Amino acid sequence: MAERPAIVLLSGGLDSTTVLAIAKDQGYTPYALSFRYGQRHSVELEAAKRVAAAQGVARHVIADIDLRVFGGSALTSDIDVPKHESLDDAGNKDTGSSVPITYVPARNTIFLSFALAYAETVGASDIFTGVTAVDYSGYPDCRPEYMEAYERMANLATRAGVEGTQRLKLHSPLISMSKADIVREGLRLGVDYSLTSSCYDPDEQGRACGHCETCLLRLKGFAEAGVTDPVQYQGA
């Protein structure tokens, strides 16, 4: 059977790990791509390595870029990561009117551009990303209209696209799923979520804080799915 290569953006968190399992389940041979982009900790990269090894990707590339030179985010500058007692305290995410300080300017555009280059070099016509527009932080580059626009642009941007040897498809299988739905799908596919890390501000032992927005969203998903999150939390 011919290989169906696909690039999978892999942060080491809940969403991207689930997307990797989905890509494999759909018969793709995954080439994982992670980034050391100047984020405030390396815990998620260690998680990405564990996940890539456990799921048996064809190759795992960690690209080095430095977004700290721009700053502008609690993840790439000396700004405290906001902590909350509940998602209600984090603000109204239904309207998408408030973009949190954990948003990294143009991060998904940058990451997808690297994925586009990686795809062309391995002959892949498919890129998988774990963006979601439900139970998320309101980032502008996670919206369906953004993903659709990027796919159109991508097919104008490469030699393979211009020569007609590649028609790129951008897959966002989680975009309309809640965190609970994502957890259920991952468990159905045999994902070991104990290998993952979603926290924006883990401690030196890699334990999740439990109070940043991404921790609260993750905990909400596991609770609504009726299962216990297997990662370690501070104070637990």
Automatic annotation (TrEMBL):
GO terms for molecular function: ATP binding; ligase activity, forming carbon-nitrogen bonds; zinc ion binding. Its EC number is 6.3.4.20. InterPro entries: QueC, Rossmann-like_a/b/a_fold. Binds 1 zinc ion per subunit. SUPFAM superfamilies: Adenine nucleotide alpha hydrolases-like. PANTHER family: 7-CYANO-7-DEAZAGUANINE SYNTHASE. NCBIfam families: 7-cyano-7-deazaguanine synthase QueC. Belongs to the QueC family. This is 7-cyano-7-deazaguanine synthase. It comes from Streptomyces dysideae.
